[in-house]
Every structure is written in C-alpha cells, then in structure tokens.
Amino acid sequence: MKPLSPTDQLFLWLEKRQQPMHVGGLQLFSFPEDAPDDYVAQLADQLRQYTEVTSPFDRRLDTRLSQPVWVHDDHLDLEHHFRFEALPTPGRIRELLTFVSAEHSHLMDRERPLWEFHLIEGLGHRQFAVYIKIHHSLVDGISAMRMIQRMLSTDPSQRNMPPIWDLRGQVTRDNDGDGLSIWRSMVHLLGESGKQLGTVPTVARELLRTINEARKDPAYDSIFRAPRSILNQKITGSRRFAAQSYSMKRIKAVCKAFGATVNDVVTAMCATALRTYLMNQDALPEKPLIAMVPVSLRKDESSEGNQVGVILANLHTDEGDAGERLRKIHQGIQEAKDRYAKMSSDEIINYTALTLAPAAFNFLTGMAPGWQTFNVVISNVPGPKETSYWNGAKLEGMYPVSIAMDRLALNMTLTSYNDQIEFGLIGCRRTLPSLQRMLDYLEDGLAELEQAAAL
Amino acid sequence: MKPLSPTDQLFLWLEKRQQPMHVGGLQLFSFPEDAPDDYVAQLADQLRQYTEVTSPFDRRLDTRLSQPVWVHDDHLDLEHHFRFEALPTPGRIRELLTFVSAEHSHLMDRERPLWEFHLIEGLGHRQFAVYIKIHHSLVDGISAMRMIQRMLSTDPSQRNMPPIWDLRGQVTRDNDGDGLSIWRSMVHLLGESGKQLGTVPTVARELLRTINEARKDPAYDSIFRAPRSILNQKITGSRRFAAQSYSMKRIKAVCKAFGATVNDVVTAMCATALRTYLMNQDALPEKPLIAMVPVSLRKDESSEGNQVGVILANLHTDEGDAGERLRKIHQGIQEAKDRYAKMSSDEIINYTALTLAPAAFNFLTGMAPGWQTFNVVISNVPGPKETSYWNGAKLEGMYPVSIAMDRLALNMTLTSYNDQIEFGLIGCRRTLPSLQRMLDYLEDGLAELEQAAAL
C-alpha cells in the first residue's frame, strides 16, 4: 500500500468524462527481416506469456481512511490490459491514427491498474505498431518515455525482450522535473508537498490568493497577455491524434543558418502551423499566440536531475514573414532563459509556479476564463538517440500522445529519435476540426524557413 | 428541441463510469456470393456516403432551464459515429467477442449524439459483423431491434439499403412496454409520467415509502426471497460479452416433450448454466436463484401494444435433476401468468412497479443491499422470423448486448431469428470471471433436457 503523491492526486481530481488524464505513446516498427507473414500474431502469443506484472503496472487505486492509495491488484486480468488488435483495410498510417484517436478518447476503468498495451497488426509494408496508454497518476511523461526506451535495444539480434509490464526491477519512478512540471508546480505552490491535498475549493482559494498577490508584482505583468482563441474553449471527450516525423538534418540546417536552437526551430514550425490553421478557420487572433514551453535549465553536464523552467513563449503569429518570426521567437526564448540564468533553483520553482497559477486555477474551477496565460502547450521530450529495436523489429518512429484539457484544446508534444523529430498532436476533434492538416502546415513551416535561409 | 422523458432521464442518472447505460446489438453477416475479397472495405466507402443523419441519430443532449433536452446536432461528425474496424489474426468469433467486450465497456461522449455503428472486417469464412451501440436514453431495446430489422430485407437481391442512421421517416419511437419495462415502471411508481423527475433523494424517498407499504401487504411477501450471490456485487467498468446461436428445432422438441413454452425452456437452459457456473466457482447459494423475466401478457392477437408483466421466476438452481427443474420453472411461470390473467391493465402496471421498487431503490441509492428481489435478468426480445439480408449479405446471427448494473452483474438477453435462438450474455468481467464458459453450459443445459425427454 502506497499513498498517492499530491501531484498524482491532482490527475485524478482533474479527470472527467470529457477530459481523460492518461498519456500515451505510439511506436511504429518494421518486421525483422526473416519474419513470417503472421509475425505480429506470433508476437502477441509470446507477449501473453509475460504474466508477471511488475510495479507500477500491478497497482490499482483504493481508498484508505478516505485517502487514495495504490494497492497491489490481486486479480489482475492481463487480457484486459494487453490487447491484440488490427487496422481495417487499407491499413495506412491514416487508419492507425484513427485507431489511436478513438482509443485515446476512452476513459480507463479505475477499478483496475490504469494502463493498456495495444499491439496493432494490419499495417502495410511489413510494419506494425504499439500504442501504450498510461494514466498520468501512474507515471509522468518522462518516466513513460524512459520505460519505453528500456524496452528497446540498439542490438537488432537481441530476442526475448520483455514488454514494459514485465521489466522486473528495471523501472524506477523519476521524480525530477518533466515536460508537465505544471502539475508539480501547482502542488509546490500549495506548500503541501508530501502531504495529502485538501479539497478542490480549498486549493482553488489558495491559488486565487497567490494569483492576486502576483498581479501586484510587476515581474508577472506579462502572464495575462495571451489572446482569446478557438484553442481555448471547453472541450469534448473526442480526440484527434495526428503524428509525423520530420528530418533532424533539415531542422539543424535551419538552426545553423539562423543561429537558433532545435527548440527554437520546432517552436517556429508550430507557430507557422498554428497561424495557417487558424487563418484557414478565419480565427487567427490579432494579438500573437502564447505557448507554454518547458525548457531545460541545466547549467552543466551533470546528470543530476533535469531542471525544467516554463517559458511563456510569444509565437509571433501576427508576423507574416517566417524568417522574421523565427528570429523573434529565438530572441524571446533566449531572454527568458537569461532571466532564469540569474535565478536560484528555489526562485525558478517559485517563478514557474506563479506563472502557471492562473491556468491551474482555471483547470480546477473552470472559472476566470479571462485569465488566459497561454494558448497552447508545446513540449519536447527527449527520446532515444540511436536506431533501436524490440526483439529484432526496428523502431521506425515513436510519437507522444499527450492530454487535451478544457481551454487547452491542443497539445503539441514532440520527441527526438535517431535522425528524426517526431511530432504528436492531440486535440479535441470537435472544437478543432481537421486537426490533422497541421501536419502539412508543420512541413510548410519548415520549408518556409529553408526558403528564408536560402537552403 | 425536445425534453427528455422521465424514463430517459433515469438512464442518464444511473450512468456512471462503472455502469454505462448503452445497449447494443451484434449482427453477423456472410458476404454476398459474388462479392470481391475487399467487399467490407467497399461497403465502408458506400456507408460513408450516407451523410444525412435522421432522428433520433442526430440528437445530442443539451440543457435548457436546468432540464435535459434533445437538440439537433449542427456539427455532427459522421467519422466519430461510423467506424470501420478490423479483427486481429486469426479472426475467429472469439476475437469478435473480445472486440465487442472492449467496445461495450466504453462510456460514450455526452457532447455528441449517443450512438456508434461499427463495421467489422477480418472474420474468416467470408463473414463480417456490425456492432451497433446506442444509449438507452435514445432508444429502448425493442425499438433498437425494430430499427435493425428495418435496415434488413428478406430479398437477397435488394441493394442500396441505407444504414440505420439514414432510415428517413422509417423510424418511430415505440413507447409500449419492452423487456426493460423496469424503468418505465419506476417512473410510473413515482406518478410523474410526462413530467420532469425530481432529484435522486426525492425519488429514493418516494420509492422507500412505497416499499414499506408493500411489505405490509401479503401479496408482495415473495419479493424479498432471492439469496445473496456473486452475481449481486458491485461491478467494475469492464465487460465480457459472450454470444451463441442455439437451434430452435431442438428447443421446440423439448417444449413438446415437457408441455412447456419456448420461454420456459430457455429459462431452464439459463438456470442450468447459472447452476453449473456457480458450482464451478464454489458459489452456488443454497436457496434457489430468482430471475426477473419480462413476459408478454397479450390476451388476444391484436397488435395493439405489447403488454409486458414482470415475473420473478424461481430458477430452482437447488434442484439437481434437469427435467424436474424445467417442470418446476414451467409451473412457477404459469402460476405467475395465471395471477396476471385475473388482473386489469392498471393492476398489472401497479403490481410490476411494486415488484421492482426495491431493485429501483438500490439502483438509485446503492443502499439496502439486503433487499435482493432477484439475482439476474433473463430477457427475450422478438427478432426477425425469416432469413434476412442487408444489401445482399445474409444475416447469419444477431445477438443482443444489454446492460450490467451494480448488484446485477449479469444480463442474459436472447432473441429469435429464423430457426435459431440467439443468446447474448453481458457481465462484469471482474466480478464474473470466465463468463464465456456459460455458452457451453447453456448447450449442456439443452442437452440434459433432451436426455431427460429421451430425445
């Protein structure tokens, strides 16, 4: 028995029918060279043999003295968690994304351990896919990505590699910062770290007090400047997932030409895609969109932790010129980093928490919709640097599937793998129609930058 | 805009994560003789052309003056409702049932019209399936079955037959009794027919008053005699669906030998299956199980309405001899029918409502678990009498998928089609492990009766 941390309790609080709080990952694999045609069905049979379910995958929710706790599930039914499924004809990436969109829309059953592993056959070109879905109260985004990486190997000849639910002794929970540090910041703000959270009204009242103090402080005058947009409506329970890989080589060439970082360039690609998408919907706000972008603040090469600060990046979606837009984004992010460079660790945590307080208040209460501190989340999660394999099957791509929320109808999460940048966009498909077109707009955004750099 | 009837409001009230309130139907079809191998994919393309969505499939929930109403959905997204999907290798009925089990576990999004139509390819033997899921607040079981029948034809050469969401002008809501008349009875009991229901506490208080009056009346002394059993626990959100066809010819031969009705024999088959299942779990109560069995009470052949009474049928699961068990079940059901024969329509409605009041009270409040008036629902819904086709594809079988509830973890619904009786069992897969074995036990139950009749 293990009490839930305050951060993990938050994910349960925030969850509702229209707002499931699970994260996911989609991995695309090629068959090993010598594999038979029914390779995926054979793999499914092998995976069903891994009946030992290790922590945290054996945990289910329970209540002790009215507090939520994790307990070992004595009646775990692997058939519920491991699912072998197929895509319909013609089995293109389009059908795969439709499948993930539907699955990611479904709430999980709180009576059971909150994860699912979907093995998916029926893709063309001797490929198959794995879609993993885990409740955010069970793992954070970075830990999930590390688990998936531990499942993989750089050695194509390695076999008998277990699935993530049977990685005996190999999985530890990472409690350092991650791309969704907004949650930990909220808890920090409440000064309750390590204890149980109170009730929603208590927490909301506390946040409100903090916000009102922050508003008097000129250091925070910038946090209420995001415009209203269609990205910031109430959402429904239906999701659209869109994912694609983009060449790291192309992105790095743009970086070099503009003296920008990879993070600057992918943020600029997102800015262009959002600008085009909103213009086509006749819904581009006059004022520029603001993105919440978690950035790494490590000052040295020590592997101790992964200090993360949150930048409210101006996306300059009012700027018509792509090159100019990148320059301005780069400058804004650089200034924010310079500001962080002068702060101590504690100051950074406080600053981040205060920056996010208005959003946190809105998540919890749905009140004060006028306080739009940012319009969209653009998050970059580190992925494997080398070509990876799972039981001889080559990993062709891996795409994060994150969380859409009320008033944050779109989440753009990306990861790096080998020589690719992998984008995963998740959004409410009702408030954001034809979200999948953003994939083309991201490509257009990159092409425009290449043109601007005369590459 | 159309206010929800009190009955339909009940289904929304009763719905929770662990207890979705949608009903479904699974239809199994053969390819038309001349169909190409990609027949199902072509069919999917044709179905996507039916973009006109007719009532009630165009309705979504809204609230006006704090009352729930149906409104026309101006932004209906057919891709969300019509889904083309596939079964994994080896594509047996087993994979189909696993698929339906998972889909039937998922809550629907209340922001959208509450229905889904799944076209499923990947079955062997040139077969495919359709799984339709509709919220019970949108249609009742009988109406759903009639809609599906209107989609079909007895003419194998007929083509261009629309799917159920585009049956222009052909669908009317049936408001006469159905297999789940428990709901209408509850509303009747509250004397609020045609008006808005109050709040759950008000309704529960009213039910409690009624129950306490009924307990003083010797006519109702039988309604608290059901034993406690594992069928009557709190449920989780995960479902197991099991379905199979049994030969009507065999069942009718048993009827003739025992002088029993088809309904008696299928009830006896269920009794045997339950007895075997519970014995294997070491969980057969000493006292016999009681089933809630809706029966038709039509006295003449007039097609006016479909008067339904509810019988609390003693399943005599304490009786070891199969033939004797059928005789006792037949006698019990006959006595109940005779009792109804002496009653007026109003008396029948009152009697039914009072019989169901304790269960209704428990559904609403989760209190008074000691009042177990019945252990299981066994419901028989009329189906098509002749071989039916949909765009030339022969209907091989159709199986109802009903609702499991807290303290009623299993629902056994059956329907007749052509020369078959089609059983659909839906249950909580956590509280009732290996529920699919009941299909074999139903077959055993029929074989035992044949043996007892020396057939």
Task: Record keyword descriptors for this entry.
six-stranded mixed beta sheet; 12 helices; 2 domains; 34% helix; 22% strand; Chloramphenicol Acetyltransferase; 15 strands; alpha+beta; homodimer; 455 residues
Which structural class do you get from the secondary structure elements of chain A?
alpha+beta
The 3D shape of chain A can be described as: globular
Helical coverage of chain A, percent range: 25-40%
Report the mean per-residue pLDDT of chain A as an integer: 87
Strand content range of chain A: 15-25%
Describe the structure.
Two copies of one chain form a homodimer. Helices cover 34% and strands 22% of the residues of chain A. With 455 residues, chain A is α+β, with helices and mostly antiparallel strands. Chain A folds into two domains: 2-151, Chloramphenicol Acetyltransferase (2-Layer Sandwich); 182-388 and 399-452, 2-Layer Sandwich (Chloramphenicol Acetyltransferase), CATH 3.30.559.30. In chain A, the strands form three sheets. In chain A, strands 5-6-7-2-13-12 form a six-stranded mixed beta sheet, with helices on both faces. A six-stranded mixed beta sheet of chain A has the order 8-15-14-11-9-10, sandwiched between helices. Chains A and B meet through helix 2, strand 5 and helix 4 of A and helix 2, strand 5 and helix 4 of B.
List the topology elements.
Two copies of one chain form a homodimer.
Chain A lengths: L1 E2 L2 H9 L7 E9 L8 H9 L11 E6 L2 E6 L5 H4 E5 L6 H13 L9 E7 L5 E9 L5 H11 L30 H8 L10 H16 L23 E9 H11 L3 H19 L9 E7 L11 E7 L7 H20 L3 H21 L10 E6 L7 E2 L2 E9 L8 E8 L2 E9 L9 H15 L3
Parallel strand pairs in A: 5-6, 9-11, 11-14
Antiparallel strand pairs in A: 1-4, 2-7, 2-13, 3-4, 6-7, 8-15, 9-10, 12-13, 14-15
Helix pairs in contact in A: 1-6, 6-11, 7-11, 8-9, 9-10, 9-12
